[in-house]
Amino acid sequence: MSHRVTTEELKHREYWTPSQAVQVLGRSTQYWIKAFDNGLVTGYQDGKASARFLDATSCREYLRSLRPNIQRDRKAHTRAICAAFRERIKAGATNQ
User: Fold this and answer.
1) Would the pTM of this model clear 0.70, i.e. be above it?
2) pLDDT tens-digit readout, 13-37
3) Where along the chain do its domains lie?
4) N or C terminus: fewer CB in 10 A for the chain?
5) Fold of 7-95
């Protein structure tokens, strides 16, 4: 009988498989595999089974490093939506 590891138990581990990283941090298994293969997160690989084990701290730091870009992109997106809305209001005001 296999025991499914809870997310709370995983949070305290030092290494995760890509699917365990998904369980704790989100994204997809392929996302974490590519991050490891591209050297964006550290860990080790079992050569026999080609299983990847990702350093949990490295995964967390990688996601933290993306936050400023995500926030900047959101702000730019919001500004663009507001500008488009203002243009629609101006166009509506001139059509009346």
Assistant:
1) no
2) 899 999 999 999 999 999 999 999 9
3) 7-95
4) N
5) Multidrug-efflux Transporter Regulator; Chain: A; Domain 2 (1.10.1660)
